[in-house]
């Protein structure tokens, strides 16, 4: 039996993951900014699922959640940093209030939750699941701030994987393509100051044309995450869905092409050896 601590359980992946874990008999510390949104979900799992308030931008609240998890279940062995939202618009269009607020959730919130959890996880070992995105693999015009945040999640996760291996803690970086959650609805923020110069690269069209029609089934995504958490040999990177795989293949090919194209020029930068 595993014990999960999951952020952002009010909808989408977080909610489904909490339910799927509880339904198979695991224990769950489900958290949400507004805890009343998850109480009904937890009701059938009394004694195995507890609900706690957690806005991931509140580092003290993350510590309180960890303390309560230890008090209730003696700890946990899977941390899922799931909470997040998107900010779309060109880099020049964004304001510090917009992009700093998004980094507070998607990046610093993940860091603070992880830092709060690590003293417990280092004792038990286990798995950290960090929700990145296909947007954490490849950057495209109109999504720069969200890409930057998810690229940060990737870098933090890769570093953690190395740092935490000696403690028996694995890291899984989940990189979904478009999945039918609330993400493209209420979890997308558009920059307020849209500039006509960037109309062609605006993400607005992307949202309007895809919300409700995303090809990915979040329940199938959650089944893959459960399988990866259970597997001894799951890879660090888990691109989820065909769209994410296409992004990863495209990125690898473009990166390969770039590093090969100027190899002779760009490797000629070391001091001459005597
Ligand atoms: N669905 C996709 O296509 C997709 C693709 C790639 C990556 N992702 C990633 O998957 C993760 C989950 O998103 P989702 O698709 O499940 O969308 P979702 O249904 O909109 O869920 C987002 C969750 O994040 C929570 N959240 C936002 N800000 C928070 C904060 N400050 N503290 C705590 N919780 C907060 C929301 O809670 P509230 O109810 O309090 O707002 C909600 O529970 C995100 O990290 C997202 O970037 C999604």
TrEMBL record:
InterPro entries found in the cross-reference section: NAD(P)-bd_dom_sf (IPR036291), SDR_fam (IPR002347), SDR_oxidoreductase (IPR051911)
Protein name: SDR family NAD(P)-dependent oxidoreductase
KW Oxidoreductase (keyword) present: yes
Keyword terms of this UniProt record: Oxidoreductase
Family classification: Belongs to the short-chain dehydrogenases/reductases (SDR) family.
Cross-referenced Gene3D superfamilies: NAD(P)-binding Rossmann-like Domain (3.40.50.720)
GO molecular function: oxidoreductase activity
Entry's transmembrane regions: none
């Amino acid at each position: 039996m595993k014990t999960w601590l999951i952020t952002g359980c009010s909808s989408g992946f977080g909610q489904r993951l909490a339910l799927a874990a509880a339904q198979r008999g695991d224990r769950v510390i489900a958290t949400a900014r507004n805890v009343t949104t998850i109480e009904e979900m937890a009701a059938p799992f009394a004694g195995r699922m507890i609900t706690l308030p957690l806005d991931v931008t509140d580092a003290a609240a993350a510590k309180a959640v960890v303390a309560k998890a230890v008090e209730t279940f003696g700890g946990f062995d899977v941390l899922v940093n799931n909470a997040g939202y998107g900010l779309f618009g060109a880099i020049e269009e964004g304001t510090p209030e917009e992009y700093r607020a998004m980094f507070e959730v998607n990046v610093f919130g993940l860091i603070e939750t992880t830092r709060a959890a690590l003293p417990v996880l280092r004792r038990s070992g286990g798995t950290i699941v960090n929700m990145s995105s296909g947007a954490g693999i490849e950057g495209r015009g109109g999504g720069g701030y969200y890409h930057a945040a998810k690229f940060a999640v990737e870098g933090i996760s890769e570093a953690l994987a190395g740092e935490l291996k000696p403690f028996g803690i694995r890291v899984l970086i989940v990189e979904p393509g478009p999945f039918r959650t609330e993400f493209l609805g209420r979890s997308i923020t558009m920059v307020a100051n849209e500039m006509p110069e960037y109309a062609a690269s605006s993400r607005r069209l992307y949202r309007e044309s895809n919300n409700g029609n995303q090809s990915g089934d979040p329940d199938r995504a959650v089944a893959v995450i459960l399988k990866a958490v259970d597997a001894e040999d799951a890879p660090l990177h888990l691109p989820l869905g065909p769209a994410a795989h296409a992004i990863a293949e495209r990125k690898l090919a473009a990166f390969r092409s770039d590093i090969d194209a100027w190899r002779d020029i760009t490797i000629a930068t070391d001091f001459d050896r005597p």
